[in-house]
Amino acid sequence: MEKNSPNAGKQISPMLKLGIDLGPLILFFIADELYDIFVATAVLLVSLVFSFGASWILARKIPILPSVSLVFVLIFGGLTLALGDEEFIKIEVTLTNALCGMALLLGLIWKQSLLRVVFGQMLEVDDEGWKKLTIWLGLFLIAIAITNEIVRYSVSTDMWVAFRVYGILALNVVFLATQIPIIKRHLVEDE
Questions:
Q1: Helix axes 87-109, 64-83, angle to 10 degrees
Q2: Is the pLDDT of residue 54 over 90?
Q3: What is this structure's pTM?
Q4: Percent of the chain residues past pLDDT 70, beyond the cut
């Protein structure tokens, strides 16, 4: 990464960032509605690579969390397409969330808030705040993984896609809203 470059670390407008982040999921849902899970998976793979590239071009930095997600989607989406088995793309959601949740919680065992490492430049909260946010997010991600497995085994593929796109998004919005009081209580005041 070019630290001295005038373009290094540029901010992307929130609406553009939202479009870059959610665009691949929306395209995945549309492709599944129009075609099937395999076309949708191919669309997801291509759009995630495009989205990742757009983030790099616009912000000149590699986003950590989307990078992890991209690797998992490329692996499991690739397996879905190569083997003709839709279960791989469904399992990706479980594994990505479970592993990220466990990594956050294990980081705390080593006295390190990995959440702070990722978001520390965007949010200034005290150590106790980072610890609480990390615990809650770790548990939330593991709960998403478990919920995905329940949904994966109990509904059709089309219903799973709707859950993947809209259900998980809604759960994330609710979760983030519940974290606002913690953030407010632990904000570091500017001197």
A1: 150
A2: no
A3: 0.84
A4: 94
Q: Give the residue among 173, 175, 169, 42 at the shortest CA–CA distance from 93.
A: 169
Res. 7: pLDDT tops 70 = no
Please state the domain extents for the chain.
1-84, 86-191
Contact 130, 190 (CB under 8 A): no
What average pLDDT does the segment 51-64 reach?
82
For residue 187, give both structure tokens: 């904000």
